[in-house]
Amino acid sequence: MAKSNGQKRRREAEADMEQNDAATTATTTEAPESQDGPPSKKSRVEERRSLFVRSLPSTATNESVADFFSQHYPVKHATVVVDPKTKESRGYGFVTFTDADDAVEAKAKLNNELFGGRRLRLEVAEPRHRAGGPGVVKSRIAEEKKKREDDLTEAKKLPKLIIRNLPWSIKSSDQLSKNFSKYGKIKFSDLPNEKGKLKGFGFITFRSKKHAERAMIEMNGKDIDGRTIAVDWAVSKEEWQQKNIDERPGKPETKKTPKAKDEEDQDEDEEMKGMSQEDRDVAQFMKKMEDLDSEDEDEDEDEEGGANFEEVKEEEKPKRTTDNSTTVFIRNLPFTATNESVKEHFEKFGPVRYARIVMDKMTERPAGTGFVCFVKDDDFKACLKSAPRPRLPVKTAKTSVLQDESVDTDGRYTLDGRVLSVAHAVSKEEAGRLAEAGPAARKTEDKDKRRLFLLSEGTIPTNSPLYGLLTPTEIKLREQSAQQRKKQVQGNPSLHISLTRLAIRNMPRNMDSKEFKQLARQAVVGFASDVREGKRQALSKEELARGGAEDREAEHRRKEKGVGVVKQAKIVYEAKDGKKVDEKSGAGKSRGYGFIEYSSHRWALMGLRWLNGHPLKNEAGRTVRLIVEFAIENAQVTSRRRANEHRARQKRSEIAQNGGNPADKRGSKPVTGNKGQAKVEKVEVETEEESSKKKDAKEKLAQRQRIIGRKRMVRKNKKAGR
């Protein structure tokens, strides 16, 4: 009985397939060629604008399939073959696009994509060639596609290698070829780059597969200029994408017994939770589709009236956009916000397709910005129209990190106590142009007077190779340091980050200040050497210009004096009672941290990046890695120190102009009738009066201290007598 039922289902499926084949063949019958009028259905099929879709879920409908494919490419109509009894999908159907190229791209892009919990299998629908029937002439588009496929097949025959983790010293394809030419003849080599910046990998194509295999075996894991390269077979982009799809949780659908079919459907439903429609939208978010000027095909649709495809008019459903025309860019997001919380917040304006938080690549933490894409254009416009407008700050007013919540009266733009800034998201090209113009604008106006952006300098990303070398104790120390520094600057507005002073922790206790200063000099030289060898990236123009005129002046003074780039290298020492003592006293021991001050920000940044994570041996012989950050300073103390330094420089310059020691000036006899000398005498008198006042003040202070000491002794004796 079960066998007969299975045969019956197979006969029904074959009958349906035969019926659709007949419908497809009906569209390929010969018709008189015509130069005028809209294209016939025969020409559209010949142009291969239709896809045959398999593995559709039983709940699929014409509308849902058309809606899914129209998110990616303009769709003319879609048809799902249904069971006449159950009115449910039989698992296959057809989708017709307005352009043949869109059909080819849709097949390559959407094959194996999830739809309703199942992975679609797509094929280009071709006219069926029956025995005795007229042959179908291939169109120009089909010939071009065949030529591209042939060229791709020919290219795949050549053995191609991909080389990853290349050093920055290899800057041209010829340099890359020299490292592999000894293994055989090279057809060509390539070093991909983006806007002139190398990506760190390259390709080598050999003429012989044996030579390529030998090169891969011997070069894989080899060091080139201090970096270990990885060599492997290169695959096409399509194969690489297919491999990624196969490696995702849940494999593509395979033939299974009817008993396992229900379990497979449940597994695919779980896959859908992990890979939603939003992820596919975000993947193409910044890709701006060109406007397709579709011609009026009403006559064409009338001609297709008797076909087996059911028409879906474009006017019945609004077009869903796939570019950034309904996307807003959000600033000032709280760092605790998630994709889900942002999406839920903006659903007050209307249905949201997706919401994404931007992550900082270096720190792997939220950057405080994000994107929200609305489904409907009206909701997008309403969100922009009622958004709070940024207020220009008054020049005399002091800046504040607090938000003025009065600008958002109804609270629709306030998330976790922060008023959001909403703007229309720009295209990728426009964003790149603005990013290039940003540093130039920041040169003229530096809003971050406290330089809090330097707090993240010295943070080691978790995906960095250096992070894997840190011990759990060192990782914990770095996390505690970051939290403590953040808490300090938030609690005291007078604190700021120094441009030239570094704070170093986790130092060996047996290191003295002399060795410490030598290490500070070595850091600058080591950084420059690494840049020349291609092991590090040089400082950017923006980083070099941070110090401004103050840095240029300091560098000029340093070169005039002929001194080094390290102004101070200080290690903090403590006595047995825990109090800080001077290193020269010889009575203390190191606390394991210190400070380095460079003459300008340029040298400080070079020193930080070289010293941070630098390994040293401690007194026990174990390796420790330095924790280096820009030091936190008090703005008031710093201003007083700079004022004292400025006065000292002026005094030294005056002494130099007067020809030496100021004592000579005081000892010289006054010349009668000389007005300038009279002024000198007046200054001498004032100087003597000031010295006498200082002397009196010291005597009074000493007297007070003696009285206080006597009173303490009296109280102490009284207590002892009791």
UniProtKB/TrEMBL annotation:
SMART domains: RRM (SM00360). Gene3D superfamilies: 3.30.70.330. Residues 292-305 have a biased composition (Acidic residues). Keywords: Nucleus, Repeat, RNA-binding. It comes from the Eukaryota. It is found in: Nucleus. Residues 240-262, 272-291, 310-322, 538-557, 645-654, 678-702 have a biased composition (Basic and acidic residues). GO terms for cellular component: nucleolus. InterPro entries: Nop4p_RRM3, Nucleotide-bd_a/b_plait_sf, RBD_domain_sf, RRM_dom, RRM_MRD1_RNA_proc_ribogen. Pfam families: RRM_1. Residues 49-127, 159-236, 326-427, 500-626 form the RRM domain. The keyword Ribonucleoprotein does not apply. The keyword Nucleus applies. Residues 1-57, 240-323, 538-561, 638-722 are annotated as: Disordered. GO terms for molecular function: mRNA binding. Residues 1-10, 707-722 have a biased composition (Basic residues). PANTHER family: RNA-BINDING MOTIF PROTEIN 14B, RNA-BINDING PROTEIN 28. This is RRM domain-containing protein.
